[in-house]
Amino acid sequence: MPRTVPPRILLAEDDPVSQEFLAASLRALGCEVSPVADGAHALASARAQAFDLLILDRSLPRKRGDEVLRELRADPHAASRGAMAIATTADPETALHAQLRDAGFDRVLVKPLGAAVLRRALHESGLLDEALPAKLLDDDDGIATCGNAETLASLRAMLAAELQTLQGEFDVLARDRDALRERMHRLRAACGFCGATSLQRAAAVLSDARRDDDPARLAAVERDFRRVLAATLAALPPQASA
Question: When you count CB atoms within 10 A of the terminal residue's CB, does the N or C end of the chain come out lower?
């Protein structure tokens, strides 16, 4: 059965660059991410909040990832005591990977991690129902619509700003059917000029779903729209999303 809410993930990674990349990649997949930089904070967060998945670096400061998981599993009152857990490590040694699995991790991922590896791990863990569209931005379609590459780049910069605003406003907007339909109408036009065909289709599906009184279907459509929105924003060139 499809998930109706985004997966909630605790990401424990002490390297700032790696943490930023992993958090952005997970959000682009439609996940809700809570990043922390050390084992003590990871344990406190996992005790207080219910996460679907814990991604713990094995070599975290203040408490290693395997120590965090051991203490969490031993705490009967911890909110995330039974959450799935993935260990990350830069060490390719299979003996260490076996030790981490014996410590309770469901799988071990070797750093540096790519977005495709994360997507596959989440899909195999049952946290992603389906793959994202293969082509989020169609350059040829965008240039054919707006005339040239320079205009396309300018329009995509405007689209990136719109998507960032929409992410922050969506929870409120989703409670007003008329306002959401009007916003989706404008978004579909903007996506058409920018070659953002996957988001254009997702906006159309969401607009139609707002006429549906089935809460489960609507929740699933909203979840998919958020996922494609985040992925489209992440796919825009750096100069467009700045």
Answer: N
Token pair in block for residue 206: 């969401």
Please, what are the domains in the chain?
A: 8-124 (3.40.50.2300), 139-241 (1.20.120)
Share of the chain above pLDDT 90, in %: 48
For the chain, residues with pLDDT lower than 50 are 1-2, 4, 239-242
What does residue 55 show for φ and ψ, rounded to 5 degrees? -110, 110
| CB-CB contact of 180 with 205 (8 Å) | no
CB 105 within 8 A of CB 87: yes
The token duo for 101 is 């699995």
User: Between vectors from CA 128 to CA 223 and to CA 159, what angle results, nearest 5°?
Assistant: 45
- Round to the nearest angstrom and report the end-to-end CA distance of the chain: 38
- How far lies 24's CA from each of 7, 17, 106, 133, 220, in Å? 14, 11, 22, 17, 22
